Amino acid sequence: MKKPGNEAVVEALSTLLASSYTLYLKTHNYHWNVTGPMFTTLHTLFETQYTELATAVDEIAERIRTTGAYAPGSYSAFARLSTIEEETGQPKAEEMIRTLVSDQETIADAARHLIEAAEAASDQASADLATRRLDIHEKNAWMLRSHLE
């Protein structure tokens, strides 16, 4: 049964889920299509990051279910909810990195928004999930950004 007062938390979790799934797809795309002198390094880094995101989307969706709501699970729902834009082109490696840095920072912001909503609803479990996601996305952004220095 849906708990009263958790609509803001479910909305923030759904945005985090959709954004994470979109970033998963984009990172996987970049893993498949990266070329150039940083190929091996980026191919491996992108695989590490999309693999972690695959686990994350499951955890986020299951958290939505524990609130009594249903998790979005279609491309159309993700497109509507996501704060991450899908990749439709074939960017060069350096542009892939810049895009992923920005996307990691965008999802970190979504995690911060979830922390605020969860704390307002006294939902410690969702706040904890968001805090863990924030840490991972900030670290991923740093790792990616380091390739541009």
UniProtKB/TrEMBL annotation:
Q: Which InterPro entries match?
A: DPS_DNA-bd (IPR002177), DPS_DNA-bd_CS (IPR023188), Ferritin-like (IPR012347), Ferritin-like_SF (IPR009078), Ferritin_DPS_dom (IPR008331)
What residues does the Ferritin/DPS domain cover? 11-149
Top-rank taxon: Bacteria
Hey, which family's this protein in? Belongs to the Dps family.
Q: What is this protein called?
A: DNA starvation/stationary phase protection protein
Q: Which organism is it from?
A: Natronospira bacteriovora
